[in-house]
Records
---
Amino acid sequence: MDSKNTAPDISYYRLSLTDFLKESQPELLIDNAFIAERADTAAETYSQAVRNGSNQIEAGEQANAVLFQDLHFSTHNTLTNILWNEFSDLIPEEDAKSWAILLFPECEHVFAEYTLSDDFAYEPEYESLYTELTGVIANYFDEYGIQ
């Protein structure tokens, strides 16, 4: 936070986004341009909102909306949940997040078949995605003898 006007600066938004991505979109952590652009846009959104008369809370909400836009549906969390729900006999719960990172390249083509949005988990197509991903993971485990 900037001590003069208590407005978050770009580093605040960069750190917020990076922390979020570590947990739910780790495949995006290597995209420094994306992170920098989002942080810069969020900081500018905050400043513009304050200039337009919004209070700090409202400006922060607007900045966060920009910062996290289209990131609420997590491919990583989806894979982790499938591992927890469908493969708990093979993959210990504490290892599921690491396995999700490993499995993402194997599953990326399935995700590409769907129009993912922030609310995708609540769409009817989510069940089809879940089923397809479960099949891909099962085939991967069979192929590599993970039993």
---
Amino acid sequence: MQPSSASNSVLEAIGKTPLVQLHRVTPTGSARIFLKLEYYNPTGSYKDRMALAVIEGAERRGVLKAGMRVVEYTGGSTGSSLAMVCAVKGYAFTAISSDAFAREKLETMRALGASLIVVPSDQGQINAELFTRLKAELAREADQPGVFWADQFRNDDVMAGYTALGDELLGQLGSGITAFCAAVGTAGMLVGVSHALKAAKCKARIVALEPAESPVLTTGKGGAHRVEGIGVGFWPPHLKPGDYDEVRTVEEGDARKMARRLAKEEGIFAGTSTGLNVTAAVQLAAELGPEATVVTVAVDSGLKYLAGDLYTG
């Protein structure tokens, strides 16, 4: 028996994730729902795609060189992904994060060799004020010599990683995708997938999602919530007219319930933002009917949330 091909490093294991159809959470008579299992990436998150694209883009442009330090403010998954890529490539990495985010994510960054600056939150709430404090701390770090700021909210290299996700969806389902929905943090994933689908002449409806508790995209007003990685309290610069067709809000409580349903009924172990994505996908599927196909993303693993109350509520 011939051995299967081996990868040269863990970076080559990023992407090419499975796509599975949901059954028990899908309403009778509705569209098919497919979920891209991004927790198959090395750190258990779709952010691995972005981290690799940003670091290699900076290397190509010559703004990141041997001996330099990478910095970024992060809710945890981006930091874990950057820590992993920097570990392989030999860069020091400093993450600015907060106690508002899952302890597992903070410890993962440390385990992967990152230096961690933890900014206190207001009783664990994620809101615009917290991101203001994170950015202030980031500015102090980024102003030092020999530093490259990944700048996930403005760096266009982000799109290269997420466009590849869209290309994979096309390879797995073809161009017959009726709707694609995803929660927005940096908006890089939603926009990257949108670009890939549009380039292939796929007419999928692109639906941006946000927590109902922080409806910046729909009302212009932010608020406090606990859905990590999304609802950052300001309009993400990557998200521009033409990249999406609609914005919807989802209640955090509904997202948390769906995350638990996915584990118990579909065997899919993921976090709250995945629950939010699937809640919206279920709504879209019911509206679009049985001839349609709705696609969304399981953004990370439920293993990142076991120390919190997601799976005990």
